[in-house]
C-alpha cells in the first residue's frame, strides 16, 4: 500500500494487476467501509483478467487521513480526480462504486463523461436532492447510536478485532468530523440531469436488498444502463456474492463500451 498526498489530504492507495492493462478504479462506501471491501472480494479477479486495479481509502476511512471537515460529495469527487492525476491515469477507465462510492462515481461521471469507458454501481442510487436528505438522516441516526462507547464491545466479541477497529474508526468519523452536516449540504442534481448522461452503466443489486426495487427506475432514467439483480443476497452483495459480482464485472468490461470517436448513441 502507498500513501499519496492528493491535494492537502493523504490517501492510502493500493494498485494490483498489469500496469499497462485497462484501468479499473474501485470506490468504497461510507463509515464501516474501506478499500478492503474490494481487496477481499473482486479486486483479485479483475487483476487476473488483465486490468490495472486501483483501490483507495476515501478520506476519513481506513488508513487515509481523517480531516475534521471536508466531507461533501463534491469533495470526495475532487479527491478521486486528484488521485487519478497523481497516478497519471490519462486514458479512459472503468469506475466502480459500492453504496456511497456509487454516488461518487456518478458525480464524477456527470462531470467527466469522456474520461470513462463505463461505470458500475453496486447497491447505489443517484445522488439527487432526496438522496442527500436521506443519507444525512441515516448518518445522524448512526451518530446518535455511536455516542454510546459500549457499542464497540459486542462487535469485537462477535466479529473480532478487525471489525471492532473498523467500528471504532466509524464512530470517530461520525462523532468527531462534520460528515453528517457536510453530506446534507452536498451539491446534488435533479433526476432529469441524469437522463442525458452518455456513459454506459452496469447497476448491481442484491435481490433481498431494500434498494433492489429502485433498479427498474434507475434503468429508465439512465439511457445506457443495464440493471442486474442477484437473488438471495442483500445490501452486502459485493462481499457475500463476490464470485458472482466478479464474474459480472469481468464479463461486462470485456464487452467493450467506449464508442468510436464522433459516434453517437441512437
TrEMBL record:
Hydrolase is among the record's keywords: yes
Domain AB hydrolase-1: 22-147
SUPFAM superfamilies tied to this protein: alpha/beta-Hydrolases
Key word Transmembrane present: no
InterPro entries tied to this protein: AB_hydrolase_1, AB_hydrolase_fold, Carboxylesterase_BioH
Entry keywords, A to Z: Hydrolase
Domain of life: Bacteria
Annotated signal peptide: none
GO molecular function, one term: hydrolase activity
PANTHER family linked: HYDROLASE ALPHA/BETA FOLD FAMILY, PEROXISOMAL MEMBRANE PROTEIN LPX1
UniProt protein name: Alpha/beta hydrolase
Organism: Streptomyces albireticuli
